[in-house]
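Hey,
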Amino acid sequence: MNKPHMSNKAKPHTQRNDQTTGEEDGSDSEILPPSKSARKREMTALQKLGETLMALPADQLAQVPLSKRLREAFELAKNLKQREAKRRQLQFIGKLMRAENHGEISAAMTRMDDDNRLFRQRFQQLEKIRDELIDNESALEALLDGHPELDRQHLRQLIRQARKQASSKDQAPEKASAKRRKLFEYLRETLVLA
């Protein structure tokens, strides 16, 4: 009942991979297909990219270069309610993604990310300027020195209303934020930031 001892040197059915350059025997070196694990990782990555694309709003998805069949698959996936049906549709999208131009899709996604990042940065800059204008009396003159295109009188009026609303204790928070929002909107529409 003793099992025969197998040495560590025994290798059952391994694929021979000679490290020759192909010059010695006159043939080109053999290129092995990707492993099953590599194919699975690629499919999972494509499925994740499909999920990311599906989460995009319709106007942004329209900017991504996709085939008609893939766009239809996305529309169907968005309309599905059952979890299992949606999962299967995402797998199908991953399969369709193999035939797409991944470079163009990635470039479009990068452009959208850059646009979103710039939008957030500008939004934060405008919020900071608005808050400075409300909190600091001298901030208005500094802003007008750098941006003469702004309407001085209208801007002062908006700042005064926002300060008055902020100092009033009996006002509802929505009304206080409405004046701040009005000041922000004016800055967003007229202020040119570098």
